[in-house]
Design a protein that fits this description.
Distance between the termini of chain A: 27 Å
Oligomer: homodimer
Strand order of the largest sheet of chain A: 5-2-1-6-7-8-11-12
Radius of gyration of chain A: 20 Å
Structural class of chain A: alpha/beta
Number of strands of chain A: 12
Largest sheet of chain A: 8 strands, mixed
Shape of chain A: globular
Chain lengths: ~375, ~375
């Protein structure tokens, strides 16, 4: 039996970071700078060539320094074989791929943390490992959000503009959360326990904010016009977002969770936010000033937040008998706009491994791991 | 028995014009200028006060002159009691109101023409008269579009920028179309017979072009930004419009109608239009240059084209087993955006008096007036 305590006291807790985007650079560099042995895996060689050449990642901003990496590789086996903790730091639509490539190499006691899971990340990752007949007893957890606000600022270099003080994290099942928390604490004391993965999953503010704003600003985004993304959230757009948010909260309630509204989240997260409506709260948030809209429609605001956000919320809602017309309308629109069947390919209850279960059955499953 | 021939030769064919917007000004003024006795009815006094004070309408542009009116009134009975032809010239969402106020006063042989009917105008008008137990044998017809391109340009003054050469018109049932055509010919030789009211109704290009463009430009329209409406139709927006157009054509086909696509309509209607895609055809249409987008969301592009356009197409499609996901998605979005139940209040098959009928039954009804 693995003893988590031993890891907590072990400065050599070994980390694999899967993914080399903004978040991958930040997590790999910062954990290496903190003294942990870190290996980085990425599918595409061209995205890690600078990391390998320089032997690590330079951090700037809220953290300054150089984090030396033990290995930078496109070989997943090399990256994860001896890892204690596997940090998955990729868009949610890549979680399935990461689970598939990890499946042959994971072993008992390893901890896999999705940074973040978006809606249903841990459920999907777990389902893929089962599909691949993985017998190893790995612990799978998902964070509610990425711990950093960061951007790659040069070759093997990342700008950290902020580190969140508290990031909720839950394991699947929730009975594993204390073990995971204890082991990952030396890496990130910022992690705090969430009730279960439904809580981390449904606390998806991006799914509320992003797809609607892209759809209702589609023309100017496609035209590559420069504008402040959050100023693009006019009263009518935010009125629509409030409808999506109410649906999200209603689905959460159906699964026994009382969650913050998007408006409450703004009020509780940022300094100086005020207002009775979501519109007022967004417009009064100085932290949003200057964040530019994307200049193309090929963005995670659609291709992540729809299939691993709105689809999951609507599908869980349908299972629970909660109506989600606003979520559904945006998904339907995006299916036509982008010639994709997000309903089928996205994280619906079938793809999350929850089809045919009752609400109570799902709650019990995410809490205990038992399917009854 | 009324003899249509006698009317054709009667220069005193009496006309009532219901509505005093752009189209009402143009039709009332022009028919009066042509020498017909014209009475104008409008619900709101303030919209007709100038017409009454000046005793008529001044026409500018493609037609120049002054059309003297016999009566300008808010009293529907006065307006229509002795009319041979009642020209209804209001947004389609006002057709129900006009049918309700006309119901007590219509009499045998009167002809009612909706300019235009949009989708389902004649069907709705007829249903309302039946609901009101009207026994008079009136002939109801709908035009496919408004005969004029025009704008009110001052008090009791209208600018006619163009007169369409051919405007399809159909009576309900189609067996009445020849009679209606013969009687209205002295008023407008531009009217040509359509197959039936399903053809005039489903030939609704506005429903294809307008709501999608508003939704995907919602932010800038709400912000009151000045931009060229048709330049707001980017490749992705027009890709969506093509999906709506395919659905419209599929619904028409299910009802036995072969119709022009929106792209074909552009190529056949305007000089100099060219392109393989709807996007190219729109962008090459010089006639669209300079047509500004609305500066508010409270526009007929939504509040007419959704309930009396997309709702009807989708509802007729559902009855005929034709899937209309793009139409439905826009309607769903607009229901949430504007807190309206367009599905219920719009011209669905129930509100058109067609619920429970088969496709064949509906075709037979619009062609012959028989419900079997």
């Amino acid at each position: 039996m693995r003893n988590p305590k031993s890891n907590v006291q072990n400065p050599k807790l070994k980390v694999a970071v899967l993914g080399a985007g903004n978040g991958g650079h930040a997590i790999a560099g910062h954990l290496a700078l903190k003294g942990f042995p870190v290996k980085v895996y990425n599918k595409f060689e061209h995205e890690i060539v600078h990391m390998r050449e320089r032997g690590g990642v330079t951090l700037e901003g809220a953290v300054e320094g150089f984090g030396p990496l033990d290995l930078v590789t496109t070989d997943i086996a090399e990256a994860i074989s001896d890892a204690d903790v596997i940090m998955v730091v990729v868009p949610a639509f890549v979680h399935r791929f990461m689970a598939e490539v990890c499946a042959p190499y994971v072993h008992d006691g390893q901890i896999i943390v999705l940074n973040p899971g978006r809606t249903g990340g841990a459920l999907e990752f777990s389902k893929v490992l089962k599909e691949k007949s993985v017998q190893a007893k790995v612990l799978i957890a998902e964070a509610q959000t990425l711990i950093y606000a960061c951007r790659i600022s040069g070759p093997a270099r990342v700008w950290i503009s902020g580190i969140k003080k508290r990031v909720p994290l839950a394991a699947l099942p929730a009975t594993d959360t204390p073990t995971v928390m204890e082991i990952v604490h030396p890496l990130y004391p910022e992690f705090i326990p969430a009730a279960n993965v439904l809580e981390t999953s449904l606390d998806n503010i991006g799914a509320v904010f992003h797809p609607s704003t892209v759809v209702f600003n589609l023309n100017r985004i496609e035209a590559g016009e420069e504008f402040d993304f959050y100023r693009g959230m006019t009263p009518t757009v935010t009125h629509f977002m409030e409808a999506i948010d109410r649906e999200r909260l209603a689905v959460a309630r159906a699964f026994g969770l009382k969650m913050e509204s998007a408006r409450e989240w703004l009020l509780n997260t940022y300094e100086g936010v005020q207002g009775e409506t979501l519109y007022e709260c967004i417009q009064s948030n100085r932290a949003y000033a200057g964040i530019k809209a994307p200049k193309s429609l090929n963005v995670r605001y659609i291709f992540e937040d729809v299939p691993t956000g709105l689809v999951s919320i609507a599908s869980l809602g349908a299972l629970a008998g909660v109506s989600t017309p606003a979520c559904r309308a945006i998904v339907d629109i995006c299916c036509v706009l982008f010639d994709r069947d997000f309903w089928r390919e996205g994280r619906n209850v079938e793809n999350l491994g929850l089809a045919g279960m009752s609400v109570e059955g799902i709650i019990n499953y995410v809490n205990t791991g038992e399917r009854n």
